[in-house]
Amino acid sequence: MTDDGMRLLASAIAIAIGAIGPGLGIGMLVGKAMEALGRNPEAEGAIRTNMMLGIVFAEAIAIYALVVALIIKFV
Question: CATH number for the domain including 18?
Answer without folding.
Answer: 1.20.20.10
